[in-house]
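User: Sequence recovery, please. Input:
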């Protein structure tokens, strides 16, 4: 059940009706408990629309980590607390490893055995549960925070189930921290908690990004990545640029819709994007792209490894480890590992460049605007090269695309330029509307929303494509 699908809207309407209608007669704790019970039931129904059997995983993770956190908080000795934390970490990563990386491991085992002249053939049919990477990280961070006494354990397993399974962020984030979400669970939601104008705007912005931009521009990116040999340099560049727009609009569009839907229930989710393609360096890019993941990796992996408060050599090692694992988090493929390594090296180069430039007078008196533009163009080029590894199905395909990008080839097909330019215009228009929305009269906003809804009906492609990050 996709946010942009026809089937989702009756589900959303029924859930909102039950949430606000059935709880209207109650006050205080009874209203709060009933609201939470309805949200958990709706979220489980939402998750079961993909695979009902895999619901047992998220229910098991919820109960196991809720209990682990409670026991950690009550443990009499540090030794027992560490063993309970280890059990939670091993359990969560074990489940994630089996369902997400078992096939990847076995494929590489077969390949390694073939190099040695051995024949090993082990096939395991493992279905990747939707959203497992997201809710596993959320559950892990909760137990770690309780262990480090940065947050108190939740007393109610129902409250914890809302935190883990809340359907707007369940399958593709943003990755929510318990210290941000738990305070919102402490009282019953009232209609005054709903920011209806922002909710509608964010949902329609996300729908526009997904349906009118991402799904449309995929018709440029997908054929090129499927058969790059049919395209010359211009066509390959158009395809890579199209994918950069596609993945941004697809993922940030999901986040916009998730934030908008959560607002309808009175909850606020964290922002996950901040115009990342305007970044002037790769470090700034990761402050703007998938913010909830980058901050999670920083707080729960980079800093525990020693972070920057160690020797330069260990800092570089820590950063590379984090980015390699961040790449692998996205998918069980060497392409994702290389994508993570590419960004890890980029971050190290930028840190070293910043260190060397500190306190030094520039060799040439270049205007600040020119420096910012040069930094922005260089960063965008760096990110585009990384997207090739991220999107290509094989390393061979990625190598072929990069070769055509940087070794001029005038032959091959060229996608229509308007098909690439029009989505960019829509992106700019949507963000401009968001910037000035508080100062725009309500009737003008209503007219703009009406035009967007009409455009969604008129120009939406047949069959909404799944969100890209559902596979992660």
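Assistant: Recovered sequence (472 residues):
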């Amino acid at each position: 059940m996709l946010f942009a699908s026809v089937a989702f809207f009756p589900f959303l309407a029924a859930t909102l009706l039950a949430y606000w209608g059935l709880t209207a007669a109650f006050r205080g704790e009874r209203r709060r408990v009933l609201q939470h019970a309805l949200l958990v039931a709706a979220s489980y129904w939402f998750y079961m629309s993909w695979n009902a059997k895999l619901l047992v995983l998220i229910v098991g993770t919820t109960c196991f980590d809720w209990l682990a956190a409670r026991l950690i908080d009550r443990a009499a000795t540090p030794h027992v607390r560490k063993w309970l934390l280890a059990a939670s970490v091993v359990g969560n990563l074990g489940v994630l490893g089996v369902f997400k990386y078992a096939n990847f491991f076995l494929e590489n085992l077969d390949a390694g055995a073939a190099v040695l002249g051995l024949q090993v053939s082990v096939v395991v049919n493992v279905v990747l549960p939707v959203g497992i990477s997201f809710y596993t990280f959320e559950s892990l961070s909760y137990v770690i925070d309780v262990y480090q006494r940065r947050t108190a354990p939740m007393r109610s397993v129902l409250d914890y189930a809302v935190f883990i399974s809340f359907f707007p962020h369940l399958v593709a984030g943003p990755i929510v921290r318990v210290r941000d979400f738990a305070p919102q669970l402490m009282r019953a939601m009232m209609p005054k908690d709903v920011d209806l104008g922002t909710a509608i705007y964010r949902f329609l912005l996300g729908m526009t990004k997904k349906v009118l931009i991402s799904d449309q521009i995929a018709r440029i990116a997908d054929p090129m990545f499927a058969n790059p040999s049919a395209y010359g340099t211009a066509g390959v560049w158009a395809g890579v640029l199209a994918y950069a727009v596609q993945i941004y609009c697809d993922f940030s569009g999901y986040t916009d819709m998730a934030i908008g839907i959560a607002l309808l229930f009175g909850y606020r989710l964290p922002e996950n994007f901040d115009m990342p393609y305007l970044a002037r360096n790769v470090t700034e890019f990761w402050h703007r792209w998938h913010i909830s993941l980058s901050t999670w990796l920083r707080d729960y992996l980079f800093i525990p490894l020693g972070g920057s408060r160690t020797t330069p050599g260990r800092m570089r090692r820590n950063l590379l480890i984090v980015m390699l694992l961040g790449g692998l988090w996205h998918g069980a493929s060497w392409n994702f590992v290389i994508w993570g390594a590419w960004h890890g090296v980029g971050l190290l180069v930028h840190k070293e460049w910043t260190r060397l430039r500190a306190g030094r007078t520039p060799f040439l008196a270049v205007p600040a605007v020119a420096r910012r533009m040069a930094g922005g163009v260089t960063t965008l080029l760096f990110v585009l090269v990384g997207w090739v590894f991220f999107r290509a199905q094989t390393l061979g395909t990625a190598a072929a695309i990069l070769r055509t990008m940087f070794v001029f080839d005038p032959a091959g097909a060229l996608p229509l330029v308007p098909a690439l330019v029009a989505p960019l215009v829509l992106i700019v228009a949507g963000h401009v509307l968001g910037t000035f929305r508080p100062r725009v009269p309500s009737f003008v906003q209503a007219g703009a929303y009406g035009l967007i809804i009409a455009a969604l009906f008129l120009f939406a492609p047949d069959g909404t494509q799944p969100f890209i990050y559902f596979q992660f």
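Residues 197-471 form one domain.
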